[in-house]
Amino acid sequence: MAFCKICKAPIKGRANKVFCSTKCKNFYHKNLRSVTKKEAYSIDQILHRNRSILLEILGKTGQKIKVNRLLLEEKKFRFKYLTHFHVNSSGKMIHYLYDLAWAEFSDDEVLVLRK
Ligand SMILES: [Zn+2]
Q1: Other C-beta atoms within 10 Å of 84: how many?
Q2: In angstroms, what is the span from residue 40 Cα to ligand 1's centroid?
Q3: Is residue 35 in a domain?
Q4: How far is the CA of 37 from the centre of ligand 1 (A)?
Q5: Average pLDDT of 63-75?
Q6: Which residues neighbour ligand 1 (ion) by CB within 5 Å?
Q7: Ligand 1 centroid, distance to 44 Cα (angstroms)
Q8: Range of the domain at 109
Q9: Does 99 score more than 90 pLDDT?
Q10: In a domain, 9, yes or no
């Protein structure tokens, strides 16, 4: 006999059921989302801030611009925080922050681009 993951009531019906009712199932998923939201908050803030810095540098319509790395450092850009990455055909790593991105060109040059 299986027991509900939330209220521990015995579960009737299909053998692989985890919850006794829709109410317990909804409670579980609502809680899971809320815990994730809370734990992800501080990193989300860093990612949003990083994207804002790139947007500020690019402007609303800019497609790409090469800037000195110092400019990003002065704005407290957190280089280690990104949403995803892509290595292009020349082997260069493109670091994404949502729809905006950056790539390192030399020790002091960074290309900021919109994808
Ligand atoms: Zn239950």
Answers
A1: 10
A2: 28
A3: yes
A4: 24
A5: 97
A6: 4, 6-7, 9, 20, 24
A7: 33
A8: 22-114
A9: yes
A10: no
The answer to whether the CB of 30 falls within 8 A of the CB of 38 is no
CA distances 42 to 37, 80, 93, Å, are 10, 14, 25
Torsion of CA 12, 15, 18, 19, to 10 degrees: -20
Segment (H or E) for 48: helix 22-58
How do residues 7-51 score in pLDDT, each as one tens digit?
999 998 888 899 999 999 999 999 999 999 999 999 999 999 999
CA of 13 to the centre of ligand 1 (A): 13
Query: Does position 1 have pLDDT exceeding 90, yes or no?
Result: no
- 8 lies in a domain? no
pTM here is: 0.81
